[in-house]
Amino acid sequence: MGLAHAALIGFITVASTTSTEQSGLFRHLLPIFEQKTGIQVRVVALGTGQALDMGKRGDADVVFVHARALEEKFVAEGYGVKRFEVMYNDFILVGPKSDPAGIGGSKDIVVALKKILQSRAAFASRGDNSGTHFAELELWKAAGIDIAREKGPWYRDTGSGMGPTLNIASGMNAYALADRGTWLSFKNRGNLAISVEGDKRLFNQYGVILVNKAHVKKELGQRFIDWLISTEGQKAIADYTIDGQQLFFPNAG
Amino acid sequence: MKDIFLDLRLWEIVALSLQVSLSAVVLATALGLPLGAAVAVGRFPGRHALIVLLNALMGLPPVVVGLVVYLLLSRAGPLGELGLLFTPAAMVVAQTVLITPIIAALTRQAIEDAWREYEEQLRSLGASRMSAALTLVWDTRFSLLTAVLAGLGRASAEVGAVMIVGGNIDGVTRVMTTTIALETSKGDLPLALGLGVVLIAMVLVINAAAMVIKEAAQRRYG
Amino acid sequence: MILPLRLEAVSFLDVIKPLSLELAAGPSTIILGANGAGKSVLMRLMHGLLPPSAGTITWSSNGRQAMVFQRPVMLRRSALDNVIYALRVAGVAAAERPAMDALKEVGLAELAHRPARVLSGGEQQRLALARAWALHPEVLFLDEPTASLDPSAAREIENIIRAFDAAGTKIVMATHNLGQARRLADEVIYLHQGRVLERTPVAEFFSKPATAEAAAFIKGELPWA
After folding, report:
1. What is residue A4's predicted lDDT score, i.e. its pLDDT?
2. Burial annotation C92-128 (CB, 10 A radius, 16+ → b, else e)
3. Chain B residues touching A167 at Cβ < 8 A
């Protein structure tokens, strides 16, 4: 959009997640791809669950999300052709600088979650079927906590995207699980800071899948996937930084 | 903050918004005006129920319209073949559905009021119902213009319908209202505020124009 | 010749009791009666704006009739265009000339391009008559045409009505203004509570009314309904 490029030969619709889009990755990546191939990529950003539903309905040509179990099920059930790993980023636990749960710089996410439950410190959850939400639920499970039973007024289901959830956490001085990308571009931090990072369990893998329906733009969609996992695409992903920090780590093949 | 108005992106978004809403208003007028006129002068069983329905549909919640149009245009839905979902065309469709009842109901009201005044005279002159309806459409043109502007105001200001059927795609289906929603949720306010200023200015101008036109016409034509 | 007009056993709800009468060409017919006697309803029945509840209303052939109401109803366009509109509806193609002639006839030529609805009450009523004049109707119905006008405007209207009469148009007019009836009528139909009580030449009606109700009406003693 504004760059000189190869003549526009068509467009594809990609269902992806709000956190990925809000990180700014697509604004960085897509013009490069479009300039090279003339294919316009139109990203509809939803929660992971909704993005996969969009794929199931056939309203997208490609899905690009970060919920491995759901993606593999998607392909197994015949909705997708094949899953390719593309990149990973990480989740971080953010929380108020005053640290009401007493996490105090721990590098262990499970320990941190147990402390949040114990102290009933305010926690803002996505609650919206997103990859981040699923990751959060998996982490509670890893901590041995049945969050559906244990949650109380301290646990807030915002039912919103990452940005709004962070807004709410900031406004309420609550802890929240966020992807690093959205956190880096989030401007309304208030009293929030990173509470826990680096735990291997916070690792967030992205996969890209061509949708398996008759009317899908298979050739153009496959070219997008091929580019993402190519050396050039992987380098473009690694080149994306905010304030000098790399957000996504390519790991295709 | 003032620099935001120099950002080309802002004006591209404004241009798309105008394109979508104006297209919807044109279509909604083409559908709603004749419908309203016909109901105003026609006499048929169920007429009163239809009037009540039209008035009720003026309050259609935009998100619900968005949802219904989405289900229709989705590949899994009856009109999926058209491949319209997540394009500006889908947004035009949704907004047209949203504002046609407004234009039809307001037209019906204006023409029925006029019909009450003119009916005897026009029938005395021998005009058929249909020809009388057309005459009244021209005669009440300023009230009808106000109805059209009301539709335009509603279309410009709504976010629910265009968000759902358009997908808020960067550079393709992002309009003023959906951008304001997105940027605000990201905590990124300059663009949101800039668009908010433009949107409010637009709505004020539309409403002021409607009033001024009506008053000027009243003074000139009586 | 669309006249004579025959009404046979015509009634309308409770307002007009079954009546029969015949209107012939020639004499100006004034329908007199108090408010609520049913004059307006009878006029509308004859003109065809209301369907009778019972009975038949028959014209002798097809032809043009026109009606002027108590309050003139003009479209939001110029005076001239209002007359042109009436002609176009009546199927007259080249309407500009006859429309202008009609305006001249009623003395509104200078106001031809003024928006009709900003004209005064008297001017609008003259315009309504011009609109009727342009159609050269065989019958002109008038329902209390001067009731809303001041005396000088009313007099102008009466002059135009006389012009219609002189041109051969049958005048059928409803009024409760006795002086006007005396000035314009050839015959009077006196309507009382939906019934035709008298039908006589004008001079005889005023000098020797046959019924007590008519006599009381003339003396101005009947209460307004």
Report:
1. 57
2. beebeebbbebbebbebeebbebbbbebeebbbbbbb
3. 185, 187
